[in-house]
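User: I'm new to structure prediction. If I give you an amino acid sequence, what do you actually give back? Let's try with this one:
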Amino acid sequence: MKVSRNDPFDLNLSVRGLGVMMTYVHSDLYEYMYYLTFKRAMKSHVKDFKNAWDQHIEDMEFFRDTNDTFVLNCFSAALKIITAKQELVVRYGIYEQEDLLTRVVISESYRFLPRILIFKRSKSYKKLTAYYERALSECIEAFYAYACVFTASSNKIPLVLKRQFKQPGAASLRLLNHDDHNVQLLSDLITGLTKDLEELKAMRAKKYKNKNIDPSDLNSAFYV
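Assistant: Good question. You get back a string of structure tokens that encode the predicted 3D arrangement of the chain. For your 224 residues, that looks like this:
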């Protein structure tokens, strides 16, 4: 079942789709934390932790203790997303296990779903940080798209809102309907994630000065 910008707006369905999308994005960031950790901070244990799901790490606090700045940045972003997701769950009484099995909700979750990199394990530490930067940027764009949908009460995002997102800083969120609780939740999330993204860019610029990765190398990767 494909989604279309012409689909009638359904608040409940949009919120549930957003919730599932948040789960997918959080899982993606978990994989970045996992593989970054075992490529550098805990490289000596890599033989025991080859697969992020077969050798799954339940306690996310594990990554906080790595003292790897890129992992910590990803941890910060993932925590913000899951906190916002929990707010939606409480607010709307969402049963995620049911939503993950509901075709129409799954389809809705793909409406603005960012590209998810597969085969992270095969990528170098440096390339993973670049892919992570792109992933975080696309996450922010996806959450802004949902904020626009809630603002307009329509899956057709007005051009003026699309253009406003290109404005710097808080100005990019100025035209959103902040009186809407869902919009404000996403606005706060976007603001927090944007701070993480700015810090990430600064860290990469400092660590890999004059060693930029060709964008075409990122485009050649496998995404879903």
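You can read the tokens as a compact description of the fold. Here is one thing that stands out. The radius of gyration is 18 Å.
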